Task: structure prediction
Amino acid sequence: MRRPTLRATVLVPVAALAAALAACTSGGSLPAPSSTPQASGSDEPESVTPSITRQVPPERRVDLAAASAERICGLVTPQELAQLAYPVRPGLPREIGFEPPVRGCEFHAEHGVRSVLIGTQPEGYARLGEHEVRLGEQPGTETLRAGDCTVYAPVGRTTLQVSTRAAEAGSDDCETAQGVAQYVLSAAR
Result:
């Protein structure tokens, strides 16, 4: 059975990643990230505390590099996202490209045009963000654009990506993305 696909511009609205995903869907190779994140102006990266936390024993954590899109959808429930972000519908699994495929799960808000995307990118893509952030004990980066805020974090042989989309994204959307990323990281390896 063939998995549903989605154009890169819908799955990952971040311009830098849209080009990488377009290369995947056309059979090309992924471009290597070329820049190092810039500091946000202070010595200590930004950090938020998620509204809920969890402890997952190491033996029960999910290998994100090998996780299917459906498994990524299971890393967080709609009820948990309602506490971390806003009320959402069940997640929709997405997979694009080949070697390695870019997998993810998008949760659309129950009301309005907002959504939360949880996905994986190739190893090294955590450097794509423009500003350094702390995701609990884990370093990461983030990029705020007009319609979304995306947080990246290195995890084993892959990069966790959490994007929050809104008609006009702002710092609250970045705090939401950071909180969701921290929550997902506690269940990932």
